[in-house]
Amino acid sequence: MPRAAAVAGVAFALLFGAALLLVRLSIPGSIVERGGWLADPAGNLRLATDLLAWGGIAFLWFIGVVRTHIGAREDRFLASVYFGSGVLFLGMSFIAGATAQALLAAHAQYGERFFDSGTFAFGGRLAYELTNTYALRMAGVFMFSLATLCHRTGAMPRVFVWATWTLAALLVLGLTQTLWAALLFPAWVLGFSLYLLLRPGPAQA
C-alpha cells in the first residue's frame, strides 16, 4: 500500500511540476498581464493543462492510498481536513486550468479584439487568484494536516514533519505569491513519496 501511494505521489509531482514549469516558461510575467503568450505558438500552455488533468488523477489516487495506509489509526478531524483540503486544491487547480484554456480559445477566435472585451481581465485575474490565493493555501492546509497525521502515527520522520509544517505555514499565510512558490507543493509530495518508496520497513504506530 505505501508503495502504491509513493508511485501515485511521484506521478503527480512530475506531471504537476512539469505543468507549472511549462506555464512559467510560456508566461514570463503574470497571467493577468497582456502579452503574446495567448498566441501559444508552441502549444506549451495546452500541454500544461493536459498534464494538470493527468496529475490530478494521480493526486486523487495518492490521497486514497495514504488514507487507506493510515487506516484505523487516523484522527477523524485531521483526516477530514486532509481530504477536504486536497479535494479543494485539486478542484481549484482544475478550474484555473480550464480558465486558461478558455482564454486561449477566446484569443484564437477574436484576436486582438479579445483584450477590449473585459473577458481577458476577468479570466486572467480569476486564474491568478485561484492558483496563488486559494489553491496554494489549500495545499498548505493539506501538508499541515497530513504531516500531523503522520507524526501521530509515526509514518513520517520528525525532521520531515517539522520541515513540512514550516513550508505549510509559508503557503497558508501567503508569504509568497509567485508561480515558483507553487512548485513547493509538488516538490514536497515528491519527497514524501520517495520516502515511502525507499524506507526499509512499514511505519510504526
What does the model show?
There is one protein chain. With 205 residues, the chain is an all-alpha fold. It has one domain. Helix content is 76%, strand content 0%. Helix 2 runs antiparallel to helix 3. It is elongated and about 55 Å long. It starts with a helix and ends in a 7-residue tail after the last helix.
What are the salient characteristics of this protein?
mainly alpha; 205 residues; elongated; 0% strand; single chain
Offer a quick outline of the entry.
This protein is mainly α.
Write the layout of secondary structure elements.
Elements: H1 2-26, H2 44-70, H3 76-110, H4 119-153, H5 158-172, H6 179-182, H7 184-198
Helix pairs in contact: 1-2, 1-7, 2-3, 3-4, 4-5
Query: How many structural units, i.e. domains?
Result: 1
Low-confidence spans = none
Helical fraction equals over 70%
What's the SSE pattern?
HHHHHHH
Biggest sheet descriptor: none
Counting helices, strands and paired strands, the structural category is mainly alpha
Total beta-strand segments: 0
**Terminal Cα span:** 16 Å
**What percentage of the residues does DSSP assign to strands (E)?**
under 5%
Number of helices: 7
Shape: elongated
Cα-based radius of gyration, to the nearest Å: 18 Å
Mean pLDDT: 82
